[in-house]
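User: Can you help me understand a structure? I only have the sequence.
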Amino acid sequence: MDGGVLYDVGNFIRTLGLDRSKKDKSGLYVEDLDLILHYLYVRDGFVYTHERLRVQLALILIIAGATATRPNALIGNVLYKHAEFQLFPPSPGGTRPRLGLEFSLVNVKKSAGSSKILIFGFHEEHTLLHDPVLHMLALAFADGAFLNEFSSPEQIYEIEVPSHVDRVRIPWKAKWEDRAIFRSMEGLEVSASKALKYGRTRGDLVRLGRALGYAKILQFYDIRRGSGKKLNGENQTMNHRLGDSSTYVRYYMTDLIGNDTQAIIFGGDPQTDFVNMMGRLERHGLAPTELTEEQKQEVRDSPELLECRQKMSEALELLKKQGYRSYVAAKKAGKGQDYEKQKKRLDSLRKRLESKRLQEEIAAFHKTIHGKEIAQQLNGMKPTKDALAPSTDEYELEERTEVVGLFSQAPYVTTHEELFQCRLKLVSALAQLCNRRESPRYCKAKHARSKPRANVQPQASIQLDSEVSDNVSMEEKPSGGPGSRLAGKICPFCQWRDPEVGKAQRQKRWRIDSLARHVRSQHLERITMPFRCPYNDCQAVLGTNEHFASHSSRAHGDNYPPSIVAG
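Assistant: Let's start by predicting it. Here is the structure, written out as tokens:
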């Protein structure tokens, strides 16, 4: 960049008040990676839209750790033709061929003006949890991508390498060569062609980090820094030009010096591994993962959000003066853009404030928790030791139960043959898991069903349009007393999923047919399918309006008229 551009950037920093603080450069090491993968398979209670997302997330983390690659070079940009399995002759004294995986990264940053393809070779790992060959085999079997249509992983290891060749390459079907390995969803099924987006994968990593209690928001560059520190010849592997290590030192080296300088200066046995432990990301399993309802309410009552709501009300009042009874009516007439703009701004600001508040709570927790725990131990309360204890959790899918059991058995096998058999079973189990999806979990939370309050009194005001809410409608509507036809239900979206609507709207009760119109026009028509059930603590994934109606009736006791909800 020339001097003029740099001058403008400097002005932007001052004018916009941009953050100039130095970013914390921590690294995720193999111990952290195994901890994350263990949680992902064994402890994670999050319901993925499809279980393939879980397995391919594991492979993304493994390859990111093994290659120190940039996330954008890996996620959504690796096609089947960029990966190839190769069989080599057995090791001396062995009987089975050796299976390797050649993995090419083509979407890498330009180096010295030219782009360079990075090709990595992966082999089978004794630690199956972070074995890239095993996980890639599982995805390929799940897709049925092999040209020769192997019926089981055993068939691959039965192939012999002829004496006149050095290897046997295992080809893909032609239709799969240009398809992404890591793919996204289309509705409730895995897309055959739609590549996975970085934003979705980053969100999963952040969620896993919070569930494990890391003090810092996890990023893929934490993996890159941790792996880069261990790699020999960083400049070639990390694609830095001309053998100059200044780029690595400046941007990717962790803040903590990895060498045991004490041993170097004073003599004695170096304890580099112990020094590296000090440089790992701090975590605590009891750290908060989400805000409490009181904290969320404090965010909702912040002056910034109140100002946004005021602008929304002003935009709505303007629509009323123009003769529209609701925002939906104005939208159908091609109006209401200002209201929609203010609503999106409100939603974006709320998410940003909630994320900031959560990070503040996490930081406060880590600052005080160790003093509290020391006090407990001084009083005789010792901690339990269950970091990676075998799981006693129950899983809905038999395939996941089998995967967890096999991963738990792997560390205790004593022979190469036992490890090989465990590997084969894991490939098959993971491939089957990739083709399964958990059914909705019908929760029994105390707020899951909306019940009329005993002291609800009829409202005196009248609302003319039955399909809109307080924040969107122009007039009020009766909601009769207990026992009457009008003492209806609370909107689950307003109550648990849309905090901007305000306290009055969250507590408003509707006649069931009016509520169905409101849910359809104000929520279902705006939401992206598939979506999570709006009822409190329910993890069901719903794909259509009709699916929402049937699920609400079956799981939550709200009998929305299907014809009204469907529109």
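Now, to help you interpret it: The first strand starts at residue 83 and ends at 88. Confidence is low (pLDDT under 50) at residues 232-238, 241-257, 442-487. Let me know which part you'd like to focus on.
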